[in-house]
Amino acid sequence: MALLRPSSRTRRRGADRDRIWTWLMLPGTLWMTGFLIASLVLVAVLAVGTTDDLGNPRFGFDLSGVRALADPAYTEVLARSLGYAVLTCAICLLIAYPVAYTIALHGGRYKNALIAAIVVPFFANYLVRMYGWSVVLSDDGPVLRALRAVGLADGNTKILNTGVGVVAGLVYGFVVFMIIPLYAALERLDVSLIEAGRDLYGGPVRTFLFVTLPATRQGAAAGLVLVFLPAMGDFVSAQLMGGPDQIMIGNLIQDKFFQGQNWPLGSALTMLLMLVLLIGMFGYLRRTRKDEAEARR
Q1: Radius of gyration of the CA atoms of the chain, in A
Q2: Backbone angles phi, psi at 189, to 5 degrees
Q3: Cβ count within 10 A of residue 101
């Protein structure tokens, strides 16, 4: 048994290697942490600041921007943003599961090529992709022309300047964030579990619900977080494919900072958005810890 124990030299060598990697990561970690904390502190301080006669921000202590968050107009925008983000997560999940399942379990030697075909277009500029998507969904675009051809739409049917257009843009922009973690979870899944599930539950739907879905729920949870966080704060989709009645909290923050010259209110809205995102993130981390604890039992 003594021969199986690592020697002191081996342990010391491993400790030295870990120390080297720690020092290499330290500059980048300090850089990112410093700027993140500094920006959060600045936004928090501005949230209780004031503005001068020209609209320039001034440090001070005034809770008028924070109290303004209770205005029904702002709570309506927050609720709309939350609803759009949740709906986007649900649609992305419905789209991503069949795609990830097919690639992971039936892609064969073309798995990498299929994943690359999904991921590579994502590296194109987000604004350019949204402009292209707005053309596809326009009144004279191919989507509405196809729907009119089969009788599912008429001349008055619109997708742009509606909530449907905003959600369609969010789904198009962030569905890849759902596909990748689901694909990773399905790639690690033992196929024999699915075969055993078919023997026990007798059908593909029941096998998916009782075997595949529970085994890949961590990947689904990661995908939900990765989609929810950017979708909640997005403003490009609402700006290009929505109208005045579909603005999201990201549009409201942009307006307060750049057009309304009300930095305290914009900062207060930013802190409110971050609070909502932190609640979602903490819920995900709590669920992950619970799953890990159950797996160790």
Answers
A1: 24
A2: -70, 135
A3: 19
175-182-100-172 Cα dihedral, nearest 10 degrees: 0
DSSP code string of 30-77: HHHHHHHHHHHHHHHHHHT-EE-TTS-EE-S--THHHHGGGSHHHHHH
| pTM to 2 decimal places | 0.83
In this structure, what token pair is assigned to residue 214? 């529970």
| Long-range pairs, 49-58, Cβ under 8 A, ≥24 | 49/263, 49/264, 49/267, 50/264, 51/261, 51/262, 51/263, 51/264, 54/261, 55/261, 55/262, 56/261, 57/263, 57/264
User: What are the helix (H) ranges across 107-248?
Assistant: 111-119, 126-136, 142-149, 163-174, 176-188, 191-201, 204-207, 213-215, 217-233, 236-241
The CA distances from residue 173 to 8, 70, 139, 156, 291, in Å, are 52, 31, 20, 26, 29
Phi-psi sector, 178: left (phi>0), alpha (psi -120 to 50), beta: alpha
Each residue's pLDDT, cut to its tens digit, for the chain (297 residues) gives 444 455 566 666 656 666 777 788 888 888 888 888 888 888 888 888 888 777 778 888 888 888 888 888 889 999 999 999 999 999 999 999 999 999 988 888 888 899 999 988 888 888 888 988 888 988 888 988 888 888 888 878 888 888 899 999 999 999 999 999 999 999 888 877 777 777 776 677 788 888 888 888 889 999 999 999 999 989 888 888 888 888 999 889 888 888 767 888 888 999 989 888 888 888 888 877 877 776 666
Number of Cβ within a 10 Å radius of residue 69: 15
**What gap in Å lies between CA 247 and CA 249, rounded to an integer?**
7
